[in-house]
Write a structure and sequence with these properties.
The chain is α/β, with parallel strands linked by helices. It has four domains: about 300 residues, Alpha-Beta Barrel (7-stranded beta/alpha barrel), CATH 3.20.110.20; about 170 residues, no CATH class; about 130 residues, no CATH class; about 140 residues, no CATH class. The strands form five sheets. Strands 7-11-10-14-8-9 form a six-stranded mixed β-sheet, covered by helices on one side. A five-stranded antiparallel β-sheet has the order 15-16-17-18-19, with helices on both faces. Strands 1, 4, 12 and 13 form a four-stranded parallel β-sheet that branches.
């Protein structure tokens, strides 16, 4: 990372758009070019039935692993800090603007849904790199869901490429020139598919080349081949690879081989912790600076920030200062190829990947790669064989059923990516109309979408991560089996063909390393079947949460609608009554899947007996008369205040099947659990507060004499002070626009911080940290963009809030406010200063930078 020597204090940071580049990449054609490629990818983690990621405890304190890695890597690279020796922000760099990158389509979909700001920074970075590099953007495409291409059948190869291309163009607004292959796994059949689809280049490891030679001129004899099978190929130039058995004039694809030793050092040594060390390592590979050459490195993008914390700062400084100072041109593969087409030809080894020394056996055999001491990998081959068997059976079902609906079933699958990208009713309807071979009925539309979803899950079940590690029962292996289970279910829904029993027999041949599971069949039973979701479960989820979410039927008889994950719930009737500790809700809903458009009209009754006890029943809607009879009988039972009689009547009306709190999806279950414990926690807060106040002098005496405070008393102090802190912050949020009131709350919060310090109380209050960060952002936005403010008073309030946050020691982050401030600084303040030559009108805002830990000394 940058050090004081690398970036002197007070040096002004200038954005890329304002920097003069003496090595204009659009003009320079000689010298050293540098490309750092990041392969950003996470396996899809969504529950196949809910189309959302459920909580993953291993990622705590984050909701799931995508969220954790996003916080540590994807967002930091979009807002990478350049710091001075005081730790102040000198500039914020969008690393995606300078690095070559591919981001898996499934990960991009998650980013688009969960952090639109970062998503847009990535899209903008590609556009800016196009502007800087003569129209050649940094982003390259990726095969859609990271399947090992040499192990895919021909049709799946093409679908993966076509889905990857469409997804890329729909986001970046241009056709991709390059494509990243999952695990860089390649064979000549894959190259043929890439060329057929218009892909110009790929990136591989040097170990994947077999031999190379100069391209001949028309008047020269054919040059001799040079064997480079031991990673000896020169990675400083691109190569042309001709397709085999492609006729008299074979077509070709261009290939870059990244520098293997430097790339390994970036992933497995400390070279990326210092920009000068990184530049020195790259400089050691330069072969005379007067000849054009490309030094390219490639590694997992998650290296920068997730695997190696803070190294996004290394990249930011290297891209914007270290590399340019050495006269190097920061570029990408497409741009370099436009300036320096291949002058050498290469032939590849038959089947290879970048993370397996045995071709692609890591994804099909017990080759040893990715193993753990004492654990076997014998499960890989039967897992691959089981999924291949299922894929082939699903192909038969698809062809038999889809030909009844689509003019060209496989073209429909290739273009289904349009629906995956945009599931709005208008897009889905237009897609079906374009591909149907006759006007489809409502039920045929559902079957058409089920068939396409079956094929989508058949592709997802080949996501490479399922084989990558040491054990089949890991989350990655379980996830691909969940996709298989969903494909099996959809196949049965459409065709009636039951394949699951035979599939489970095949899974029984997959040995597990864990005694609890024994084999793949047990894993499927314990970890896959238990995660399946029925439409009745979705209805029960809606029913139980309705007791807390205030879903009421409108008096004007208009139906209400809300979402439960990937289902839309249309509620046409709902009645809620309470009798003592009992609460009964009865409703009529229509559930519609946003994915397959299947719908069910259902009736629910849910009884809350108090505490954690819920009893919910579901049945199909059988008409208004029957529904009215259900309501009348159940509410009559409730009037008798007899829980037993009400449950008995529910069983007689709905059957024995019932749902409880445990059957809710985890997110909502945890929310309700927190709601149900609020009253208890409130009483405990009062109790702890009383214990703390009654024993305040005793606690202080222990601290004075440097004795260990009894745990019961120390906990009481921390709980009481934490509760006071959160309560005051909530009041501050409510009255933030009342200057006098908010100042009083700030004084009280400061007193709490002082008291906590004296008592050495650790205030672990995540909700307070989040609230403080939100309040700081809100106040800064008002200062920068609000009207009619007393600037001096507002800045003082903001600075007081930051001081209080630091005093409370809650770990408050200033990242978001620094980003807001630096953006305003460069877009608003500095252009005005440059125009007028006077900083005085902006002095207060510039001085605020010190509080936000932004270096503004160059302008002050």
């Amino acid at each position: 990372m940058t050090s004081a020597a690398e970036f002197p204090a007070g040096a002004g940071f200038v954005p890329s758009s304002e920097r003069e580049n003496s090595h204009d990449p659009q003009l320079v054609t000689t010298g050293v070019y540098v490309t750092v490629h990041g392969h950003f990818y996470q396996p899809p983690r969504e529950n196949p039935y809910l189309d959302t990621i459920e909580r993953q405890p291993g990622a705590a304190p984050f909701h799931n692993w995508n969220a954790r890695i996003h916080s540590e890597c994807y967002r930091p690279n979009a807002y990478a800090r350049v710091l001075n020796h005081r730790g102040e922000v000198v500039g914020i760099v969008n690393n995606y603007e300078y690095m070559s990158f591919n981001i898996g389509p499934t990960l991009m979909s998650w980013l688009e849904r969960h952090d639109l700001q970062v998503y847009q920074r990535i899209i903008e970075a590609d556009r800016l790199s196009c502007d800087r590099l003569n129209g050649y953007g940094n982003a390259i495409a990726q095969v859609y869901n990271h399947i090992i291409m040499p192990l895919a059948n021909q049709r799946d190869k093409y679908t993966q490429i076509r889905w990857g291309k469409y997804d890329f163009k729909s986001r970046f607004g241009r056709d991709p020139q390059g494509m990243w292959l999952a695990e860089a796994a390649v064979d000549y059949a894959t190259l043929t598919a890439l060329v057929d689809e218009g892909i110009k280049f790929i990136v591989l490891a040097p170990s994947q080349a077999q031999r190379c030679r100069p391209l001949p001129n028309e008047w020269e004899q054919q040059p001799e081949w040079h064997e480079v099978g031991g990673s000896q190929i020169d990675p400083t130039r691109p190569y042309r690879c001709y397709l085999k058995n492609d006729g008299a004039n074979p077509r070709y694809i261009d290939i870059f081989f990244y520098d293997g030793p430097i790339s390994r050092d970036m992933g497995f040594s400390d070279v990326v912790y210092s920009s000068s060390h990184l530049a020195g390592r790259i400089g050691a590979a330069v072969r005379g600076e007067h000849q054009a050459q490309l030094i390219s490195v490639a590694t997992d993008g998650e290296t920068f920030g997730h695997h190696k914390r803070g190294t996004e700062k290394t990249l930011a400084y290297a891209f914007t200062h270290e590399f340019p100072q050495r006269g190097w041109t920061v570029t990408n593969f497409a741009h370099y190829l436009s300036l320096h087409p291949p002058t050498w030809e290469v032939e590849l080894k038959p089947v290879t990947a970048w993370s397996c020394a045995h071709g692609v056996d890591r994804w099909q055999d017990d080759c040893g790669c990715g193993g753990a001491p004492g654990w076997h990998l014998k499960w890989r081959r039967p897992l691959r064989d089981s999924l291949d068997w299922l894929r082939d059976r699903l192909i038969k079902i698809y062809e038999q059923q889809a030909q009844l609906l689509f003019s060209d079933p496989w073209l429909a699958r290739d273009e289904y990516i349009q629906v995956i990208r945009d599931r709005t009713p208008e897009t889905v309807s237009a897609f079906l109309q374009r591909h149907q071979n006759h006007p489809l009925t409502d039920s045929e539309r559902v079957d058409a979408l089920r068939l396409l979803e079956m094929q989508r899950h058949a592709l997802l079940m080949y996501t490479s991560c399922g084989w990558f590690f040491e054990e089949v029962s890991r989350p990655e292996g379980t996830q691909i089996l969940r996709y298989a289970a969903r494909a099996l279910e959809l196949a049965a829904d459409v065709s009636g063909v039951q394949l699951e029993r035979e599939f489970m027999k095949r899974l029984a041949t997959i040995p597990s390393n864990i005694d609890e599971f024994i084999n793949g069949e047990k894993i499927y039973q314990k970890l896959v079947l238990t995660s399946q979701v029925t439409i009745e479960q979705v209805a029960a989820h809606h029913a139980i949460t309705s007791l807390f979410n205030n879903h009421h039927f409108h008096e004007n008889n208009s139906a209400t609608a809300n979402r439960v994950y990937c289902y839309t719930v249309h509620q046409s009737d709902y009645t809620l009554q309470r009798m003592g500790a009992l609460t009964l809700g009865v409703g009529n809903i229509e559930l519609v899947s946003d994915i397959t458009w299947e719908s069910r009209n259902l009736v629910f009754a849910v009884l809350h007996l108090g505490g954690w006890d819920f009893h919910c029943c579901i049945q199909p809607f059988e008409g208004r008369r029957k529904y009215s009879e259900i309501k009348e009988r159940l509410f009559s039972s409730l009037q008798k205040a007899s829980a037993a009689q009400t449950i008995l009547d529910m069983a007689q009306l709905f059957g024995e099947k019932s749902y409880s709190l445990q059957d809710l999806f985890a997110e909502e279950r945890h929310k309700i659990m927190r709601t149900l414990t609020q009253e208890t926690l409130g009483r405990l807060d009062q109790l702890y507060h009383q214990v703390y106040r009654d024993n305040y002098g005793v606690i202080m005496a222990f601290h004075r004499d440097e004795l260990t405070v009894p745990q019961e008393l120390q906990v009481a102090a921390e709980v009481a002070l934490g509760h006071q802190c959160l309560t005051k912050l909530q009041s501050l949020e409510r009255d933030i626009n009342d200057v006098a009131a908010s100042n009083n709350y700030l004084v009280e919060l400061s007193a709490i911080a002082t008291e906590a310090k004296h008592l050495r109380a650790n205030l672990n209050i995540p909700a307070a940290k989040v609230l403080l960060e939100q309040l700081i952002s809100r106040l800064l936005w008002q200062i920068l963009y609000g009207n009619n403010l007393n600037l001096e008073i507002e800045i003082e309030r903001l600075e007081s809030l930051i001081r209080v946050g630091n005093a409370l020691n809650l770990g408050v982050s200033l990242d978001s406010v620094q980003e807001m401030y630096v953006t305003y600084l460069h877009q608003q303040i500095l252009p005005q200063v440059k125009q007028s030559g006077d900083t005085h009108p902006h002095r207060q805002l510039l001085q605020l930078g010190h509080t936000l830990k932004v270096d503004v000394s160059a302008w002050l």
